[in-house]
Structure formats: C-alpha cells, structure tokens
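Notes from hallway chat w/ T.B., transcribed later so I don't forget. T.B. wanted the structure written out for a chain they're using in a teaching module, and asked if we could keep both sequence and structure tokens in one place. Agreed to drop them here.
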Amino acid sequence: MKKVLGLVISNRKLGNSEILVKEIMSNIPEECTRELIRLTDLDIKPCRACYRCLQPGESCAIKDDFNFVIERIREADALIIGVPVYFLGPHGYYKMLTDRLVGAQNYVHHTKGKPCVIVMPYGSMGWEGYSKAASLVFPKLLRMKLVDCWLVHSTLPGESLLSPKNISYAKALGRELFNEREYQAGSRECPVCGSDLFRFLNDHQVECPICGARGILKNNGSLDFSDSDYNRFSDQNMDEHFNNWLLEMKERFRAQKEYLKEVQKSYRDQSWWIKPLR
C-alpha cells in the first residue's frame, strides 16, 4: 500500500497550509496510508557543517528531529508540502530543513522520482517575492518529481478553500498525484526547474539562480533556453557536487586545519558576544 506524507510548515492550526494539504491528500483515489507532520512542532536545529552526513550510510549527527523527518520522507511514496509565504519568502523552518540536506546523496535512492506537490498560501498580492524559486530547492535536492508548485492567494485562516476554483484544483492534484502529471514551466519561468527568478548577465544572457541554466532574453521579452546545456540538479552534476567536490573540501580542510587555526588565532580574544539574561 502506498504511503503519502503531508509536511505542514506552519504554526497556525487549521490554517491555509494545513487545510490545503489535507484537501489534496483526502482526494487521492489510490488506496494509501496518510501521515502528517507539523514541522514547527519539532526541534530542527541549524546545520553545523560537520559533513559527517557526507559519508555513505551516516545519518546527521545533530540530536534533534531531522532524522525522524527525513526517514518519514524516505519511507513515503509521495510528499505534499504546505508552506506559507512570510515576508517575500517561504517560512524559515523550510529553509532550515533544506539546509540540513548536505547528505542528500544518502537519501536520493529512496526519494528519486517520487511525486512532490508544494502548495504555498500567501496573504498580500505582490508580496510573493522569491518564495516559489526558494521552495523548489528541497525537492530538487532529493531528485523528486515536482507535480506542482501552487501559490494560493489567501489572507485569512481557512480562506483558501472558500474558492470553488481552489477546491477543484486541490482535488485534481490529489487525483493526479500518482499519474504522469509533472510541472510544466510557464513562458516566463525557467524551463529546466520552473523558477520564476533570473539573473541578468552580459549580451542579453540570463541565468536561473536555482538550477544554473542559461538562456537568452530576446528583444520581444521572451526567453530562449534552447541552447542551455547545464542543470545543477542533473544526476551527473549532483553526483559531482556531493560525491566529489564536497568530500574534496572536507579533505582540504583536514590538510590545512593547523594553518587555518593560525589565521583564526588573532580573532579568538575578540569576545564581544552578548546574550540575554536567563
């Protein structure tokens, strides 16, 4: 039997993130088990860049709830993420979770190709900011199949499902979760990853800051990525980054550790830290 995991990244009980995830999950026609995790109820600490998780078979050394979350994602056959927009970007806990995927290569043989839906409620028109682009990184690192990244304008708790159009679309996402549906980028989005942000380079070149693909901005305002041959999320480039470059940096650090300590030494006594009184 298939297992579907809903990951709700919001403190607001029965808020738009939660009810949209539940509406999608409740309309999956296949027989499946359903699980929900409210990420904000868990203890997720910042990555400390120890690189232990780069070693094959090693889990994250930090004693918090990350290993619980990643294990549930690995076990699931599909992932539904509900994450609200906070000040132009996704909820900070989502970024915290994404930053913990330094050891993504240890998980991808469980997650590669599995469907993932991201639904992002936002309250103020025009304040979506970089939310969509930032939200794509997590499923891309796990090499999941993006079914959709749906931004939903809904300000008040529960308001998202006052719209019959939103209800209909959520039902469709549930029905089509396990079929061949895959996200199709719009004309003003990166055709490689779906990001809606671009970096402008020289000679009318544009670069997607998420996947690194490069294209041309034509005089009529359209984007042409037909000659792009780079995607940082391709299997080859992901393997190169995680299995080679990061491990090489770890060995380089070991080789230069004592020298680097000397560089740091003169700053050790500059202890101007302050903390609140407890």
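Follow-up for T.B.: The chain has two domains: 2-175, 187-254. Might be a good example for the class.
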